[in-house]
Amino acid sequence: MNGPKERKTGDPGDAYVVASVERAAQLLLTLAEMPDAGVTDLAEATGTTKSLTFRLLYTLERNGFVRKDAERRTYTLGYRTLVLGDQSRRQSQLIATAEPVLESLVEETRENALLFVREGTKGLCVALRESPQPLRIFASVGRLVPLYAGGATKVLLAYAPDEVQAEVAAGPLERFTPSTPSDSASLSAALERIRSDGYVRSVGEIEPDTCSIAAPVRDQTGGVIAALGVNGPTARMTDAVTDAAALTVMSAAAGLSRALGWRPGPTGMG
Amino acid sequence: MNGPKERKTGDPGDAYVVASVERAAQLLLTLAEMPDAGVTDLAEATGTTKSLTFRLLYTLERNGFVRKDAERRTYTLGYRTLVLGDQSRRQSQLIATAEPVLESLVEETRENALLFVREGTKGLCVALRESPQPLRIFASVGRLVPLYAGGATKVLLAYAPDEVQAEVAAGPLERFTPSTPSDSASLSAALERIRSDGYVRSVGEIEPDTCSIAAPVRDQTGGVIAALGVNGPTARMTDAVTDAAALTVMSAAAGLSRALGWRPGPTGMG
DNA sequence: AACAGCGTTTCAACAGTCGAAACCCGGAGG
DNA sequence: CCTCCGGGTTTCGACTGTTGAAACGCTGTT
């Protein structure tokens, strides 16, 4: 299909990748989004051949990363992925520390509480606690969102390295709703605003009728390593509510940062 | 280490395995047990070369399955593994259904509650809820235990296909404690006992001074797909306590089975 | 009875992978 | 200040494991 052979040119990126492993990784992620898919479907979804998909699945099954269904026609994630996830959660100071914070955020705001980290030019939801209310926004760990839209994601962008900000600003800004930021000038103003306010309120930038409030999470180096936020339907998120939520979220984010070893700097900003 | 090259002989097992993917899988599992390890350590631990390990890590990092530490000298599981684990948990009816059962088991018994599935000739802990008491057995999702020793594991063995039972009985029975079953005759008697009692009590077979009670979990086909159990220090697990716990565990296992679609057969056993 | 669609198997050619060894770099020791 | 040491990174070419295509058999459908 593609031929990324430019080893010596600008991006030495894939000089060391083991293609089969990368394909297997993609296959796993695809399978996570298409439970109970068959070989053919997965082959199509990942853009490879049936044979390869079959062999990758075979290999992954052997290692417990994938499970064949009883009637042997469909595949699902295997129990070993649970193990990885669990160990990962235990080992990650960020996630382990954030979990109780998410819980108390939900208690206080009664809305979904989420934690995002940056992965390249996307934000990845790595932890989440759902609102107890029946009307709530569907969210899931693993959700990938472009950095230029949404609350937590824009926070991540606001504090991301310049290269990343440039890359995002340069790239096309796909529009999900009429409110999605679509020009880099207003985006960069929004980012500046986030840095001075210390939080963000984003309304309907990804999905209409949803609103999110988010604030940065820092580690001992002072760098922003995650964004903590809540989201809910605009119907409930009146100005008064979001103003209160902003304080709650900021204080939760500061608490989390402190638990991660961050100490407020002398000038409050770098 | 080994050289499984017998493609055409008895076991056509690894005819389809993609070696690099298998190695990557092993690497991930190794990393789960050796957080913050470096390239050299991991290479040694997985029995491969530095170059290969480096490239696998590079590839996995690219896909978010591993993360390099700030100073770029150590590796950890990445956030994408969280995603897989989370999706896997949501998608697995067994795990999703078992979680509340584990919770109520802990409430009732005040001991660790665990769920095991069989993976080859080992039992794998796939879900767990810890005892609220300070003195408790250390347990973790991902723990692999041979089927011939321990509570939940022996339950799995008791209902495993004949080939598996034969393989385990044939293989060497490594002794972890003086109580570890060590001859296949008494093991097979113990399994028979489990099948007629519908539960098992295992004392100190893996670790001294620990005791576990477990019972089988069935799905709609009537097959045993998991074992549910509790474990705790023998100091607390007196006969009276374990007798009560046996009933609690059996009823929890039956409830879980029912939730999974199992219906008690006319004769109660097949 | 023929078909369609799926997962599985085979095969040979070739691209990709891999081990070995050189390389770089930071820190410890002389 | 230089050397050494032990990590991680990079290079290289031979070889082998990997791959796409196409055939196969099975199951459920028309």
Please describe what this structure looks like.
The structure is a homodimer of 270-residue chains. A 6-stranded antiparallel β-sheet of chain A has the order 5-4-3-8-7-6, sandwiched between helices. A two-stranded antiparallel sheet of chain A has the order 1-2. Chain A is 44% helix and 18% strand. In chain A, β7 and β8 form a beta hairpin. Chain A is built from 9 helices and 8 strands. Chain A folds into 2 domains: 17-81, Winged helix-like DNA-binding domain superfamily/Winged helix DNA-binding domain (Arc Repressor Mutant, subunit A, Orthogonal Bundle), CATH 1.10.10.10; 90-259, Beta-Lactamase, CATH 3.30.450.40. Chain A has helices spanning 19-33, 39-46, 50-62, 79-91, 93-109, 151-158, 162-170, 184-197, 239-259, and strands at residues 66-68, 75-77, 112-119, 122-129, 144-146, 200-203, 210-218, 224-233. Chain A is an alpha+beta fold and 270 residues long. The model of chain A is unreliable at 1-12 (pLDDT under 50). The longest helix of chain A has 21 residues, at 239-259. Chain A is globular and about 55 Å long. Chain A binds a DNA duplex (30 and 30 nucleotides) through α3.
Helical run tally of chain A: 9
Multimeric status of the protein:
homodimer
Largest interface, counted by CB within 8 Å of the partner chain's CB: A-B, 54 and 54 residues
The end-to-end distance of chain A, rounded to whole angstroms, is 46 Å
CATH topology of the largest domain in chain A: Beta-Lactamase
Instruction: Please give the share of residues in helix of chain A.
Output: 40-55%
The whole-angstrom Rg of chain A is 20 Å
- N-to-C SSE string of chain A, H for helix and E for strand: HHHEEHHEEEHHHEEEH
Q: Report the biggest beta sheet of chain A as strand number plus sense, adding barrel if it closes.
A: 6 strands, antiparallel
Strand content of chain A: 15-25%
Average pLDDT of chain A: 91
Count of the domains of chain A? 2
CATH class of the largest domain in chain A: Alpha Beta
What is the second-level CATH architecture of the largest domain in chain A? 2-Layer Sandwich
What is the number of strand segments of chain A? 8
Backbone structural class of chain A: alpha+beta
Q: Strand sequence of the main sheet of chain A, in spatial order?
A: 5-4-3-8-7-6
Overall shape of chain A: it is: globular
Low-confidence stretches of chain A: 1-12
CATH superfamily of the largest domain in chain A: GAF domain
